[in-house]
Each structure stands twice: as C-alpha cells, then as structure tokens.
Amino acid sequence: MKKICLTLLTSLTVLSVAAKAEIVSDIYFTQGIAVPGGAGNIFDYWRTGYSASLGAKLPHSFIRGWVQNWLDFSYAYLPFDRNSEFPVSYPYSPKPKMWGDGVNLFSMGLNLRIISPNPGIVKGYFLGGLGYMKRSKTNIYSNSADYPRFETTYGGAGFFSLGFGMYINLGDRLSLFSDVQYMVANTSPGKTALLPLRLGLIFNSIQKQ
Fold first, then answer.
1. Which CATH number does the domain housing residue 28 bear?
2. What are phi and psi of 157, to 5 degrees?
3. I want to staple 55 with a disulfide (CB 3.0 to 4.6 A). Which of 72, 98, 143, 187 is the partner?
C-alpha cells in the first residue's frame, strides 16, 4: 500500500508542476470500482474491486477542441473470489476450495476524448487510448492434492481501451465527470481485462477560452 500511495503522490506532484508550467491544462483525479472483464482466467478467480486514477489534459487539441489528448495514470485492485471453484473436478478434492492474493494493476496511457460540440453544462464524450499495463504476481492456493499452489508472474504489456462518459460543468475551473471503459492487455500467459467505472473531478489550471 505504501508503494501505491507513493506512486500516486509522485504522479500527482509531477502533474502539478507541469500544470504550473502550463505544459498541461486540466488535472483530474477519480475514485471508482473495477470489474473483471472476462478475458483469460482473471474473470474466473477475481471479483469487483477498487480503482483510482489521476491524469491531465495536454494543451493541444483538435477540431476546435472537440478532440482532446489526455495523459492517464491508473491503479486497480481486484480481490480474490474465495467462492471460486476448480474448472474441473479432482479425485482428491470432493469439495474443492481455493484462496489467494488480490491482483494489483498499474497502467499509464494516452487517451483521445471526442467531446460533444453542443454547448451546455452537460456534455457526453467517447474515449479510446493506448498504454502500458503491469499486473502483479498471482498466487492461488487450493486443497487439491494435485495442484496445491498456482503461481504466475505476469510481465507488463501494452493495452488498449474504449469507453464513454459525461461531463458536468460546475464552473470556470471545476467539472465533474463519470465514465466507463474497457481495458485489455495481452499479459502473457493470459490476457488481463477490466472495466473501470470512474467518478472524478477536473481542476482547470489554465484560463478556458
């Protein structure tokens, strides 16, 4: 947990310094949940957990500001589902039981957000991006005589994401937003996929045009 807090704090400090230098404009942070997406065995053994993210909008946008560049740092924790069962029956385990560690997911990426051009307090948007995801080592234990322990180390891998969301403008320098996106990474030996549902605030550090 200390490493997680330190990573997020360091990222926030970097973004704050960048905002003062007007390298980035809006800064956001979110809290939310993360749902296993079903790609690979992550869907079988983990359940809905926690997510947090922070990031910033880069100053350069396209098509009158309707297409925006965002830099994102994200973290998700998926707890182990202790009600999981073996996918097959083992002769030495008439009542199979499993227990294990939660999974930590760290990711960093660039997103394009396509904002609704209609004026108003509430605006919808689509988002899609690419980045890098790191998944922590997996430890699963069981009462099976054949397979008492599973241990898998996942390396980092590239990911892509797609999603949609909504802004609510609360003032010249503050907005509320919520979005959901599908993220998938080819973290061999199995894919990692999740759906973060986020709710957050955007703080504007550069005067809006």
1. 2.40.160.20
2. -155, 160
3. 72
